[in-house]
TrEMBL record:
This is Rhomboid family intramembrane serine protease. Residues 39-185 form the Peptidase S54 rhomboid domain. Pfam families: Rhomboid (PF01694). The keyword Aminoacyl-tRNA synthetase does not apply. GO terms for molecular function: peptidase activity. GO terms for biological process: proteolysis. It is a multi-pass membrane protein. Belongs to the peptidase S54 family. The keyword Membrane applies. Its EC number is 3.4.21.-. The chain crosses the membrane at residues 6-26, 47-67, 79-97, 109-128, 134-157, 169-190.
Length: 202
């Protein structure tokens, strides 16, 4: 039986591939504020299952595969075994809300990709193992907690600078949701994180 991480990846890959071949479907799934304003609220979810190109898809699914499997068991006892799926989908939704509020009247604004959900998974993993090595660009090892600090700092800087098609704030809000939701569901994660953070050599 497939774990939920693998199932999400399969669905995302299939939807992305089909949407690349069907422009009408792609346009219907992407996050577009004017359409949301007209009642297409499902775009808060559907935008997370399509991607701009193969590298965008590969990077998100590669990250989700490694970190999703590592933390999925933490959420399994919740919501009749579907806690991880709900956690992931909620992260995609909530990560997009600040961008929607900012751009709700911007007719040219578009956003897509699973980065909000993936960031939630990544930051939840960091709560569990702050000193675990994350391999930047699959090559450079960096402790998870240092990566988190750099990730947040860069997201804030890049968002303020602008000039990019990447929704950096969705990354940051997704990560924030991952941390907050995990602590709410399993409060013992917080003292575990603090103890682990203070004991990097153990």
């Amino acid at each position: 039986m497939l774990n939920h991480t693998t199932l999400i990846i399969i669905i995302t890959v299939i939807v992305s591939l089909v949407a690349w071949q069907n422009k009408a479907l792609f346009n219907r799934l992407i996050f577009y504020p004017p359409a949301v304003n007209n009642g297409q609220w499902d775009r808060f979810v559907t935008h997370g299952f399509i991607h701009a190109d193969s590298m965008h898809l590969l990077f998100n699914m590669f990250t989700l595969y490694f970190f999703g499997r590592a933390i999925e068991g933490l959420y399994k006892p919740f919501l009749f075994g579907y806690g991880f799926v709900v956690f992931y989908v909620l992260a995609i939704i909530i990560a997009m809300i600040p961008s929607y509020i900012k751009h709700k009247n911007t007719a040219s604004y578009l956003s897509l990709g699973a980065s909000g959900g993936v960031s939630a998974v990544l930051f939840a993993f960091i709560l569990l193992a702050p000193w675990e090595k994350i391999y930047l660009f699959a090559i450079i090892p960096i402790p998870a907690i240092l990566f988190a600090i750099a990730y947040v700092a860069y997201s804030i800087y890049a968002d303020k600078r602008g000039g990019s098609n990447i929704n950096h704030m969705a990354h940051m809000w997704g990560g924030a949701f991952g941390v907050i939701a995990t602590i709410i569901l399993e409060p013992q994660v917080l003292p575990h994180f603090i103890n682990a953070l203070l004991s990097p050599g153990f």
